[in-house]
Amino acid sequence: MKLILNIGGFQRIMLDNYSIADTKKAVALIGNKFEIESSGGITEKTITEKTITDQRTFAGGLLSGEQTLNSEEAKQYQQLHSHIEYLLKQQASQDLDKKLNKQASSVLDILIEEIAYTWFNRLVALRFMEVKGYIGRVLSSSDRSLVDPDILRDRDSIADTGEIAGINRETLKKWEDLASKQTNPDEYLYRQLLLAQCQSLSSSIPALFDTKYPALFLPVNLLGQDSIVGRLVKEIAQEDWEDIEIVGWRYQFYISERKDQVIGAKSKIEAKDIPAATQLFTPRWIVQYMVENSLGRLWLENHPQSNLREKMPFYLEGEKIRGGEEQEEQSGNTAPLLGLLNPTPPSFKKVSPGIPLTPEELTVIDPACGSGHILVYAFDLLVEIYKEQGYLEKDIPGLILTHNLYGLDIDERAVQLASFAVLMKARAINKRVFKNAPTAPTLNIKTVRCTRGYKLPAIQGVVEKDWQPLVEAFSDADNLGSLITPPSFNGTILRKQLADLALDNPLFQQEVVGFLRHLVDQAELLSNQYWVVVANPPYMGNRRINDKIKAFLDLKYNDVKSDLFAAFIMRNFELGLPQSQLSFVSPFVWMFLSSYEKLRKFLISHKTIYSLV
Questions:
Q1: Could you give the 3-state DSSP secondary structure of residue 197?
Q2: Inter-residue contact 393 to 434 (CB < 8 Å)
C-alpha cells in the first residue's frame, strides 16, 4: 500500500509502514556472530547474571561461547558488555521496585531497539548516498539487468584502486578464502564489503557510522530479494531518494506504530516512549515560515539592502525597511492581531550593539531537533546569506557546520538522522567535505544523554568536584532533555582533564573519555545563548506527564506546567540572546485557556510577536 503525501505543493510517495515492518524484520534477522535472543547469545538470563557469556581471550581475539572473534570484533564485544552494564545501572536506578529479571528484560528491549534502528538508519543513509552518487552502489546494481550490488561484482577493481578504505588486495583475498568455506560465499563476502564501507564512513559521519558494537549485528540474508536491502531498493522509487526530506518522513513512519500504542494507552508516558509520543515531522512550508521569519528576519533587519527577501516565499513583512530607513507597513491580515498582542511594541533600531553583522556570528539552535528538518532549511538559508556576502562556495558548508547550526534531542536515532541530513546538505555543495576527515568540521548536533546510575571513575585526573554537578544535573535527561539548565562549570578545565586522561590512559579513551566529553558538549550547548531559536517543541498534557517531569515542572516552570510545550517555550527564551528571534509551532490553546494566562501575560509584557498564523 502506498501513501501519497502532498507537502508544500509537491507530491511525496512513501511506503506506509515500510519502516516499521522492516525494522521488526531486521530485529528478527539480526545476527552475525550472535543472535540476540538465542541460547548462545545475549538473553535476559545472561544479562541478569551481569555477563554476556563465558569468554576466553587469546592472542589477537576472543572466544565467546561457540564464536571466535577477531581483535576488532573482540573490542566491539567488550563495548557491548560495557553498554549493557550501563543500561542495567540506569534501569536499577530508575526502577528500584522491579526485580532484576524485569530490569534485564527492559535492557534487552532497549538493546534490540538500539541495534535495529542503528542498522536501519545506516541502510537508509547508504541508499541515499548511492542514489546521489556520493558513494558507489553498495546496496543496488547500476545495471538493471543484474541483481547483485556493484560493490560485490566490482570488488576486484575496488581493491585495486583503494576506492573504499580498508578494502585492498590482501584483505579481499583473506575474505574470499573464508567465504569459500561458508554455506553462502557471496552472502559472507558481501557482509564484509558492506561493513568495510560503513567503517570507511565512520570518520566523516561518526554519529551514524561509528565502529562500535552494532557492527556485530548486521542483519543476515542481505542479498535476498525479500531482504531488508532488497525491499529498500525495490519498493521505494529511486527518484524519491533525491531529496534529503525522505529521511525525516522515513523516521516518521518508523515511530508511527509505537506512537499510536503510547497515545492509545492513555497512561503516563515513560521516558523511553517520550520520543514516539511527542515527535512529529514538521512539513516543509511550516519549517520555511518559521526559519524565514526568525533567521531571515534577523538578517534583513540588520542588512536592509539584502536581497535575501527574494529567496523567502513565506516571509511576512512587519516593519519594512527601505533605503536604510524604517517604514511601518501594515499587513492586512496580521497587523490587527499583532496590534492587540503588542499594543505598544518596543521601538526597534536597525542595527543595535551586539546584533550579528557577519554570517559567522549568526547562531541557530533547534533544542528539539528530531530528524533535523528545521536545521536542514536553516542550512539552505544560511548558504544564501553567505553567498550574498561574497564567501567562496566551497568554504560555506564548513563555516555553517562550525559556526551556525546547533541541535539537541533526547532521541539518539533522531540525532543520527539529523546529523546525516545536515552533512548531506554540506556534501551537495562541496564534495570534498569528507575528504579530510581529521580536519572535517565537528557537528554541533548532540543527544542529551542521561547520566542516571553513572559513577565517575576513581582514577587520577578526573576531579570529582568538577564533574559531579553535571552528572547529577543530567540524571533525568531522558525525561527532561533541553529543559535542563546546567549548573555553572568550567568547560576549559574539564576538557583539559579529558585530554590528559586520554594521553596518559589510552584504554579509557573510548568509554570514559567519550562519555564525559559528550557530557561537556551537551552542557555547553544548553548553557550557551543563541541569536535564533526555532523549534517544534514536544506536546504533552498534564495528565500524560510522568512523575519525574511533573516534579521538575512544579519546581522550575510552575507557571506553565499545564503542557510540556509551554515549559519548552519558556526554556527557549532562556536560550535566546537579548534581541534574538524565536519561532515555534504550538497548539493554539495557550491563547485562551485560563491555565495559560501567565504565559500570555509574560508574552505580552516582555516579548514582541511579529507574526502569528
A1: helix
A2: no
